[in-house]
Amino acid sequence: MSDTRLRSIALRAPEQRARHLAASACLLAIGALAAHQAHAQSSLSAGGSSYLELKGGPNEFKADCGNLYRCDKKSTQYGVSFGQQVSPNYGYEVGYTDFGSMSRGGGDTQAQGVNLSVVGRIPLDRLAVFAKVGATYARTQTDTALISDIRGGNAYGWGANYGAGVSLDVTEGISVVGQWEETRLKLADDRDARVHGVNVGVRFKY
Fold first, then answer.
1. What pLDDT was estimated at residue 190?
2. C-beta of residue 153 within 8 angstroms of C-beta of residue 191
3. Which one, of 96, 75, 88, 57, lies nearest residue 176 by Cα?
């Protein structure tokens, strides 16, 4: 073999090694991406992508109290929700909440409603951070004293609801959840009210 031929092979060798390294790096990157996607899908399906959640906690109403009677805005709310994760990062939730009642106008204002929310989620191993926004169709019932500067009666209507929280997987099928939520309500005097609170709950995945 001639010296020219040997020099040509020697010059091409580094180029060939570089191409092999680049091809290997591409294959590794593709493999890592596929593994990440597979892990995300397995994390989504572990314990099921649907869940049932039971929750409760203290809340506070924000509404006009009038001027004649004592006003107590603090209460306790309870709720149940059904959720579905359509991807590791997005899902939806349908739920019912009993918001409790507040004392105003010499009587009580009670509220309850059903809601539909879109949920965004960031999974961090066993921990997940989420936020949600949606709408609640609620019923409020206001009972007042015979003489009152607050109008009594029932009211129905849609209002925005939103919240954020964290969940922690205790087992493959059970998580504990802590979250803050706020919901807007309609009152009989055509005014709006807000109720916000902190809930602690248990989520059963299936």
1. 81
2. no
3. 57
